[in-house]
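pipeline: protein-struct stage 2 | run 1193 | Complexin
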Amino acid sequence: MPTNPGAVGGDDDGDDKEKEEEAERERQEAIREAEERRKEKHRKMEEEREKMRQEIRDKYNIKKKEEIQEIQQEEPNPLMRKKKTPEELEREANAEEEDEFTSKTELKNTIETQVSELKSTIESKCVLQ
């Protein structure tokens, strides 16, 4: 009997490795196929569920959540807006003051015009004897 285990039967080690590699490939292939079958099964189940959901939405006139989310996304979120720099804030404040002043003067002019029109209308209708 030889003391070197690889001297006699060295071919067995090579065959064993090949068999192990082949078995591992087959195992990986089986796992992949099982995963594909599972995904397909779940995809079909989800399609059936979505079909049932759509029938319920149609029956009760309910909008789909995705449609509702699209509507909400169109509206800007005030919390997510870009922060303004101090210069921008100052410009806005100045613009508001100018707008306020302009609107007050316009209002004053409008009132004065209306008062003068009323006064002239009253004077024309009332004749003092």
